[in-house]
Amino acid sequence: MTAQKRSVAILTSGGDCAGMNAAVSTVVKLALYRGCNTYVIREGYEGLVKGNGDDVSMEHAERDVTYLNNIPLSYHCGDFFRLGDFDGGDSSLSHRYIVKIGWDDVRGWNQMGGTLIGTARCKEFRERDGRLKAAFNLIRNGIDSLVVCGGDGSLTGADILRTEWPELVQELHSSGKISEEQAQRFMHLHIAGLVGSIDNDLTSTELTIGASTALQRICESLNSISSTASSHSRAFVVEVMGRHCGWLALMAGIASGADYVFIPERPPPEDWRQDLKDKLLKTREQGKRKSIVVLAEGAIDRELQPITADMVAAVLRDLHLDTRVTTLGHTQRGGSPDANDRILATLQAIDALEALMEDDPGKPSYIIGITQGRVRRLPLRDSIAHNNLLPEAIKEKRFDDAMKLRGKEFNDGIKTFLYNSIQMDGKALTDEPLTIGIIHVGAPAGGINAAARTAVRFCLHHGHTPLLIQNGFKGLIKGQIDKAKWLRVDSWASSGGSELGINRQLPDTDLDAVATQLEKHKIQGLLIIGGFEAFQSIKIMSEARQSHAPFRIPMVALPATLSNNLPLNEYSVGTYTSLDVLCRTCDMILQSASSSRNRVFVLEVQGGHCGFLPVMAGVAVSASLVYTPEKGVTLTQLDEDLKFLRRRFKADPEDSNDGRLVICSEKASLVYRAPFISDIFGKEGGEIFDSRYERLSHQLQGDTPSPLDRVEASRLAVKCCEFLEKHAGSACAWDPPSAMITMRQGEVQITPVSQMVEHADFSFRRGKEQWWSACEQYVDIISGRLSI
Ligand code: ADP
């Protein structure tokens, strides 16, 4: 007996967020790839409860469907969903909430904000009767597997539905609404959850879909507010979303260099008005012309009383500051998803589908989350229960417990924010004040100024002397070194490029001169911010300790490079920024194609000998093909790819104008380079499509860095400074530690440079192991190359 073909549906529910469309599109494609019937449910649980009325036939949808290798391409023109024009476009859709869907119906969805299949709050689903209707509609449409993308409310609903399912089926059967055969076949509902929430409020996952885009929107607004605040020497109180979760407020505070934040998990001291006044006055005494306070909408005091924006503004006005209140509201939800949300949603959706396929009645239902930097399955029930602990802790004023529940990164965030915002004049002195050098080496990467800023402020906070070294080792040799002041680095939180000046010169161009300058300025610890060159610089100086005593100081590197090519390290500052630039560029390119004709764009990107950037961008924008240095390019492969492109374009409706992206690493091949590949595709595409070559190089270093890069840069800078402080005692030791602060499986680690050397491939300037290589196959699946 052959197994029943699985039928998978996805719905989006609760508050909308960026990235939901990428999740829907990926679940649809993966389900089709796995040979399932595939549906979307419009308007969340509302659609599930309403179903399709008495119309359960899907035949109307089957009429004009084109198949390619058994994959249905389109039941509707995808634009119906984009336009929400169900009445005007396809009247058969206006009363149908459970809609069969094909591969091309979800084309180009990754870049769209909100949710194209609609979301709603559904009271009826909260009641058992509503869920009974939902169960009936699922069964009568033959759906046995459901993916729910939404916040904790929606996922709680999913959990309840799954728990009640056997009883609901039983009841439907006893009342004669479903047959015995249906009751047998649908005895179990396979269910998986994806966490879509702009607040990042689910305790069991590190980042929810939609949160980083919302942070991006907030920081864009804060950037604009900052300049006008500075012009008029004003104070601004900015209210952001987050009823029970301060993630957005805290991270926006770090990324934008705000002066004070109010969050629900960690209310301010009892006399918060005085505390706020003291802190802001100190920054004004330093000469700061603007004051920015970020307030989560759920901010409370230690007695659980709300702290409102107007209350905060009143305090600032007491200080005679010209104060304005801005509530950012729904702008935070909107707009095109950033690269992180597209990637997160895609990778999690892939796993959600796999979880459904592997599910059986003995297993728990999962939500797909991210812990320790990896996409993971977390039992749905436990995750919801864990999440409920947080509001309870706040309600009972157990704020320390609330903070613990938020996890390490959040707690690091508080520390980072305090170092950056408080003007301490070295009052938190250590017994042994140090002189610490801070230098940028390599090429600009979004966030390196934020890293230097945090390092300076950490040092000042602890009574150390931070020395800013200008223009890398070139400047160091010339003695371009000066003491950093608190205010000098103020605007560096969000600035792009390198405020210190940066180049690729290594210290071995003149080791003696480097040592002389370190000695002359009595530098007792060195923080090097950069990519492979930062790693190499530390290696070179550590190895020269025998001959050069000034190198016998602790040294630490902070990884910052868009190539993300450092050994034993999964994240480098600058990668979020570059991926954002790549996504925005690809969106523009595709728009140009849809206005003109069928066209392939071969986009060449930087990234050295490391394929991280093209592969992750390929996932984010659903590229048709990706070429990496690790795999290279061969003629046979080009021939295969060309066949795929021809087949793909030929299957498009007549008269369609479409663009398809090929992302090619600048070092994918020495022979078959991107312009050449584009020429071949253009020539061989003949009448079907043409091809254009584009190159993205220094643009990838970004303009304003991504907020996630700024936040991580600041967090890593604190870790670097703590490392230098801890090992300063070994300044006179012959071989003090040299390390890089790295990120592995979501954990910040201190990796000795000697260990990194073992894992480095120096000829290709990359790590020997590439943690992201598993993602390459996803590009092939999502583009349809493996199925179509
Ligand atoms: P979010 O999913 O963004 O947290 P809501 O809390 O409004 O948003 O939940 C969205 C929908 O999920 C609700 O309108 C309701 O249909 C369903 N839902 C929420 N909580 C429950 C519950 N306890 N039982 C059943 N359904 C629920």
Automatic annotation (TrEMBL):
Q: What is this protein called?
A: 6-phosphofructokinase
| Gene Ontology molecular function terms on file | 6-phosphofructokinase activity; AMP binding; ATP binding; fructose-6-phosphate binding; identical protein binding; metal ion binding; monosaccharide binding
- Please tell me where this protein is predominantly located: cytoplasm
What is one Gene Ontology biological process annotated in the Swiss-Prot or TrEMBL record?
fructose 1,6-bisphosphate metabolic process
Q: Which cofactor does it need?
A: Mg(2+)
List the catalysed reactions. Answer: beta-D-fructose 6-phosphate + ATP = beta-D-fructose 1,6-bisphosphate + ADP + H(+)
Q: Which residues form the Phosphofructokinase domain?
A: 8-356, 436-724
Superkingdom, natural source:
Eukaryota
Gene that codes for this?
pfk1
What is its subcellular localisation?
Answer: Cytoplasm
The reply to whether NADP figures as a keyword in the UniProt entry is no
- Give, as one word, the top-level EC class: transferase
Q: Which UniProt keywords apply?
A: Allosteric enzyme, ATP-binding, Cytoplasm, Glycolysis, Kinase, Magnesium, Metal-binding, Nucleotide-binding, Transferase
| One GO cellular component, as annotated | 6-phosphofructokinase complex
What organism does this protein naturally occur in? Malassezia equina
Copy the pathway line from the protein's UniProt record.
Carbohydrate degradation; glycolysis; D-glyceraldehyde 3-phosphate and glycerone phosphate from D-glucose: step 3/4
